[in-house]
Specification:
Layout lengths: L8 E6 L2 H8 L9 E4 L6 E4 L13 H11 L2 E4 L2 H16 L5 E5 L2 E5 L6 H16 L3 E6 L2 H13 L1 H4 L2 E3 L3 H9 L11 H9 L5 H6 L2 H7 L2 H10 L17 E11 L2 H21 L3 E11 L10 E12 L2 H15 L6 E12 L15 H17 L38
Parallel strand pairs: 2-4, 7-8
Antiparallel strand pairs: 1-6, 1-7, 2-3, 5-6, 9-12, 10-11, 10-12
Length: 424
């Protein structure tokens, strides 16, 4: 009977992903520090490595705008269409080269390298191909467990000049060196409070945690920290995840680009958010029985009157039909809107989600008409082929005045034909 090989995982993580995306089509910014801003250009949500010493995460843009200009730091509005497209290209390239992939977030994934003769060489080849084909630099950490692979990736980025962006901890010597030279606070899944508890027990490094008695950790803390310790010691406890189960709630909310005082644009916003929420609903093949709609004013300006209210509406039958969902949501706005306030945000939430056949109906219950399901299938097919928003509800404007402020947004180099990269 053949011996089953030890599992080998690679954690592939894009370096400063949002900033790297902005640099792909702007080679003039290769050596320029970059920050990316949140919705409505509110605060800093991403920084290139050379910007990190000068800017803190979460700093409000309006407070640091002049400082950024003085330091030569370039700010961008978040261009999620560009980031999502480049992420898909990176992940597709990785999936074409390895047996299995678990996409962990927009900028990182675990890959299964079990059985590959030289995992380190495979990691270097993947890294080179990703840079060559997408322009996105990545770090690659390789080990026999997912926790060690995460630690290897952290080391690959921390010591990039020495490692070339790839660290392989499948050997005992390399693994022990990294464990000894990594603080326990840097271990995946060990938060600030857990760090304090562990330090109080004399567990200061990743090596200390790897040598700790797993059953003691389980008794004192949880099975999660026990598995972390076992993984650091080289015993694989975490496999590549199966697809996530359908969500039990779906929410879509945005801050308006400006304060709204009349009901008409708020209805437009709610219809727009419902369009996106219903796409997510159909993507996981669920039906919705209830909808919650809420609006609120800004809550932090002492000179503005404050108001917030939401309402839950039960649908006549479980549905994924955006037309019915939008009609119900827009009508709900009339129940919660009060004149005399300056509204800053709206939210739609789909509740009581179930798969088809999971709703208990009586003999005379109304069900979604079959033609509605066919219309939704055509809608999704058209938007999937030609881009989101190609076909939409009439109440959803193409260019709303209340839309997000994104005055510093780069072009849609890979997502819009009229904004393709031009080389002259």
């Amino acid at each position: 009977m053949p011996i089953k090989p030890d599992p080998v995982f690679a954690l592939i993580d894009c370096n400063s992903f949002y900033a790297s995306c902005e640099r792909v089509f702007r080679p003039d910014l290769a050596k320029v520090p970059i920050v990316v801003l949140s919705n409505n250009d509110g605060c800093v949500i991403a920084r290139s490595y050379d910007a990190k010493p000068h800017v803190k995460m979460g700093e409000p843009y309006f407070q640091i705008k002049h400082r950024l200009e003085a330091l030569g730091i370039v700010a961008f509005s978040s261009n999620y269409a560009l980031y999502g497209d480049l992420s898909e290209r990176v992940m597709s390239l990785i999936e074409s080269q390895v047996p299995a992939v678990e996409v962990y977030s927009i900028d990182e994934c675990f890959a299964d390298l079990t059985g590959i003769a030289d995992p380190g060489e495979m990691g270097r080849r993947l890294r080179a191909q990703i840079v060559q084909y997408t322009g996105i630099p990545v770090g690659v950490g390789i080990a026999h467990t997912k926790t060690l692979a995460k630690l290897a990736n952290h080391t690959a980025k921390r010591l990039q000049a020495q490692t070339g962006g790839v660290v392989n901890l499948c050997g005992d010597h390399e693994r022990h060196w990294v464990l000894r030279n990594t603080a326990v606070s840097e271990v995946w899944g060990v938060g600030r409070r857990m760090t304090l508890h562990l330090q109080g027990m004399g567990i200061l490094s990743a090596m200390d945690l790897a040598k700790a008695e797993p059953w003691m950790l389980r008794k004192k803390f949880s099975v999660v920290i026990e598995k972390t310790a076992r993984e650091l010691a080289g015993t694989s406890c975490l496999e590549l995840d199966e697809p996530d189960p359908p969500k039990q709630e779906i929410c879509c909310s945005r801050m308006f680009g400006k304060r709204l005082t009349t009901i008409a644009p708020i209805k437009e916003a709610v219809a727009t958010y419902m369009m996106r929420a219903s796409e997510k609903l159909r993507a996981q093949k669920s039906y919705c029985q209830k909808v919650r709609v809420s609006i609120r004013t800004g809550m932090f300006n002492p000179d503005e009157a404050k108001y917030a209210r939401g309402v839950v509406v039960t649908l006549p039958y479980p549905t994924d039909d955006v037309r019915l969902l939008t009609k119900v949501a827009v009508e709900a706005v009339e129940q919660v809107f009060q004149p005399g306030f300056r509204y800053s945000k709206a939210e739609v939430m789909l509740l009581d989600l179930r798969q088809p056949g999971e709703f208990t109906d009586d003999l005379f219950a109304i069900n979604q008409p079959a033609e509605a399901s066919r219309v939704m299938a055509v809608l999704d097919e058209i938007n999937g082929r030609w881009g989101r928003g190609t076909l939409r509800a009439a109440s959803v404007p193409a260019h709303p005045e209340w839309g997000m402020r994104r005055e510093l947004m780069s072009q849609g180099y890979t997502t819009r034909l009229d904004q393709l990269w031009r080389v002259g």
